[in-house]
C-alpha cells in the first residue's frame, strides 16, 4: 500500500512544530546557561534568621531554640548547650544556678548576678543566665573559658561561628574571584563569593574540591586550584595518656589506724600504678588523710621506681550510707568534698585519684554520677588521672544498682570493674569469688549494655578466695584465704578438680562433721582472667590487694598484659 503524500499545508504545519520545539530547546539551554552564570553572582543562600556554625558545621537545623543576641551577648538555650557541649548540664534548684562541665572546667552561673564560678573561683561577666518563654538561656559568649571556644558574631550575614580552641585550623589564600557553592554538583546554589587575596578557613581538601568557610561564616565548596598557601594556624591539641600501654595497678591497703607500708628496697614486676589507702571520709563527711611521714616515703619509693601514685579515697565504715547520701544530695557539700580532694592531690604531688565509694543508696545513683561529673574536670585541670571503682552490673541496691556505669565510664578516665565477691560474706550458699564465666558476662554488659569504651575499662582481680564451711543443716559460713596461704590451709592430700567454665580449681573435703569447699585462686585462674583484657582490648588490670598474692603472679600478669 502506497504512503499518502503530505499536503503543502501539512508540511508547513510540521515545519512550524519543529522550529518551535527547536527554539524551545535553545531557550531552555540559554536559560540554564544564564542561570548557571548568574548563580555565580547572585547569592541565593541569604539567612532569614541567625545561623549557628560550630567547628565549621552549620547546625542551625539542629537547634532546639533560636540563638538570641542581646547587647552583643550571645545566648544559647540550655537544651542546645546539652546537645552541643555538655549533655550533663543541669539546674541546681536549691541554689537556683545552672551547673555545667566541659573537659577541665566546672562552672555555676545564676540568674541575678553577672558572675560565674569556674573551678571554685568567681569571675565577673557581662550577663547572667536568663529565662524566656519557659526556656533557660546561657550567655555562651561570656563562657568561652568554660567550653574552650572562641565566638564571632557576623551581623551582616546573620551567622555566629563557634570554634573549639583545641582543634586544628587551616587557612588558605584565594587566588582569584570565585563563587562558593553549596555542593560540588554541576548546578548548586552560591552561598557566598570570595575575591582574590581573601583568606578562607579550609575545612577539607581532596585535591579537586576544597570545603571552606568564608569570613562571613558561610561554609561551601570551591575548586582546590582556587586556593594556595594552605597553612595550619592552630595545632590540634591532644593530651598524652599518663600510662602508655596497659595499666597494671595494685591497691596497697592499710587501715586508718596503721601507717603506710615500708616498700623501700622492693620492686613489683610489671606494675605501673600503686593505689595506697591514703584518704577516707569520716562520719561527719569530712575528708581525712592518713599519709604522714611513712606515706610521703611511700610516694618517693613509688616515683623512684617509675610507678604512678593514684591513692584511694573510700567511704567505708558503719553509718557511711547516710553520710555519703547527705553529701551527694547537696551541691555545696559535693563541691567542698571535691575541693578537699583537689587540695590533697596538690599537697602530696600525686598522679591521680581512685574513687572507691561503695555501699550507697540506689536512689542516689544520679547524684553520685553528678559527683563524678563535677570532680573529673577539677582532677583533669591539675593534670591528674581519675579512676572510679564499680561492682558487677547485677546485684543488690546498695552494692550494684547505685552506679550508673554508662555515665561514669563516659566521664572518668577509667572505670575499674571490681570482678570479685561473686559469692561473698553475705552469701547463703557457697560459690566462687570470681568465676571466669561470670566476669566475662559482666564485661559484655559493660561493653554492650552500658556502652563503655573498652579502653576505659580496667579489670580488677582478687588475690584471695574463700574457704566455705557447710554444716549438716546446710548452714554456711566463709573465711577469707589469701592466695599465698591457700596451700597452707588446704590438706596436702586434697584433690583439686578443674572447672573449665570458671577457669579455676575446685576443692571439697570433709572435716569435723562439716563439708569444706573452696574455689581456688592461683596462677592459672588469674592468668585466665587477665587474658580477658587482651580478648576485649581493655585498658588494663588492677589487683586487690598487695601482700595477699603468690609472688609469682606478677610475672604472669605482666606477660599477659604485654602480649
Could you give the order of strands across the largest sheet?
Answer: 24-23-26-27-28-29-30-36-21-22-25
The total beta strand count reads: 36
Share in helix: 25-40%
Mean pLDDT: 94
CA radius of gyration? 33 Å
Biggest sheet character: 11 strands, mixed
The dominant shape is elongated
Tell me about this structure.
This protein has 563 residues and is α/β, with parallel strands linked by helices. It has twelve helices and 36 strands. Strands 24-23-26-27-28-29-30-36-21-22-25 form an eleven-stranded mixed β-sheet, with helices on one face. Helix 6 (331-347) runs parallel beside helix 7 and helix 11 (523-535) packs parallel to helix 12. 37% of the residues are buried. The mean pLDDT is 94.
